[in-house]
Amino acid sequence: MSVSKIEEYWQKYARENNLNMTVPEAWMFGDGSKETGDELGTLVVYGNKTATCAAHCVYELEGQDLPKVGQHDIVLDGDNNPLAIIKYTKIDVEKMNEVTSDFARSEGEGDLSYDYWFREHVKFFTWELNQYGLTFTPDILLVCQTFKVMDVYKANV
């Protein structure tokens, strides 16, 4: 996938919506695998996934700013092609073991239960934190991000 496809997609969206903004971050959900990127990206495109979360400490370790309400991002599929433009509507920082079942359901994964969400996120964050030499604990701080799909990339639908 060429970066120009992402840039062209954003420029068209920005022009149609009178936005004078640079190309936002473009990223894929999950562990970087094609399978997970495609699966979670599809949930976004079809409106099942309206939230996500990330380990707060990873933002710090990578020197990244936390997302902000009103910020746009471009969601990519497992091949790094654009799928959709999202806009954050709510950002909360909370302990993983204090995340609500409503938020867990809004992530749109599995059977939509809190138990499924918690079990799968334990696996993911254990794996992710291990990449940094860190150990998972259930009270890890998460950046809980609720978003709205603003546009779906037409070539992929």
Task: Write up what this structure looks like.
This protein is an alpha+beta fold. The chain has one domain: Roll (Sulfate adenylyltransferase), CATH 3.10.400.10. The protein is 35% helix and 25% strand. It has 5 helices and 5 strands; from the N terminus they run H-E-H-E-H-E-E-H-H-E. The protein has helices at 3-16, 34-45, 56-61, 101-106, 114-130; strands at residues 26-28, 51-55, 72-76, 82-95, 141-152. The chain has a 5-stranded mixed beta sheet with strand order 1-3-4-5-2, sandwiched between helices. A hairpin with a 5-residue loop joins strand 3 (72-76) and strand 4. The radius of gyration is 16 Å and the shape is globular. The model has no long low-confidence stretch (mean pLDDT 94).
